[in-house]
């Protein structure tokens, strides 16, 4: 629930405090592709090692739309991108096939997934 300015300040503080002793991954996922890229461009100048990007929320997206979203972000940034799949919070799921397609992008390096365990 931080503003864009606050998110940049948190990332800056982390990079400064860590001072190269550990990698810093900043979260930049926003509700739109444009806003995510805008935040990512600000954060990458701070010296983060990578960024994580949650799927957009509120509006249901097709898998093709998720591929377009993540591809545009990975194309726009110079730092590596982690996909972040948390469908219980966003309403959008990165399906296995979509993850495979996105894994072929040279700037997409990882997938973090947070899903509830299935019970019988």
What can you see in these coordinates?
Pfam families: DHDPS. Belongs to the DapA family. This is Dihydrodipicolinate synthase. Keywords: Lyase. With 120 residues, the protein is an alpha/beta fold. It has a single domain (4-17, 25-113), classed as Aldolase class I (TIM Barrel, Alpha-Beta Barrel), CATH 3.20.20.70. Helix content is 44%, strand content 16%. The protein has helices at 4-18, 33-44, 63-76, 87-90, 96-103; strands spanning 25-27, 50-54, 81-85, 108-113. It has a four-stranded parallel β-sheet with strand order 1-2-3-4. The chain starts with a helix and ends in a 7-residue tail after the last strand.
Mean pLDDT: 94
The CATH level-2 architecture is identified as Alpha-Beta Barrel
Strand content: 15-25%
Q: Give the topology string: H per helix, E per strand.
A: HEHEHEHHE
Task: Show unreliable segments.
Answer: none
Structural class category: alpha/beta
Looking at the structure, what is the overall shape?
Answer: globular
- List the domain count as a whole number: 1
In angstroms, what separates the terminal alpha carbons?
35 Å
Relevant CATH superfamily: Aldolase class I
Instruction: Give a quick account of the main beta sheet: strands, pairing sense, barrel closure.
Output: 4 strands, parallel
CATH topology group: TIM Barrel
Number of helices: 5
Q: Residue share in helices?
A: 40-55%
């Amino acid at each position: 629930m931080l503003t864009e300015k606050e998110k940049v300040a948190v990332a800056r503080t982390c990079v400064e405090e860590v001072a190269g002793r550990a990698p810093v991954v900043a979260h930049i996922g926003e509700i739109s592709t444009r806003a995510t890229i805008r935040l990512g461009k600000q954060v990458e100048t701070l010296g983060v090692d990578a960024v994580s990007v949650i799927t957009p929320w509120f509006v249901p997206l097709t898998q093709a739309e998720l591929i377009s979203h993540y591809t545009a972000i990975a194309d726009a940034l110079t730092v590596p991108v982690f996909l972040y799949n948390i469908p219980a919070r966003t309403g959008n799921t990165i399906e296995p096939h979509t993850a495979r397609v996105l894994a072929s992008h040279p700037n997409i390096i990882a997938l973090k997934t947070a899903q509830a365990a299935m019970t019988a």
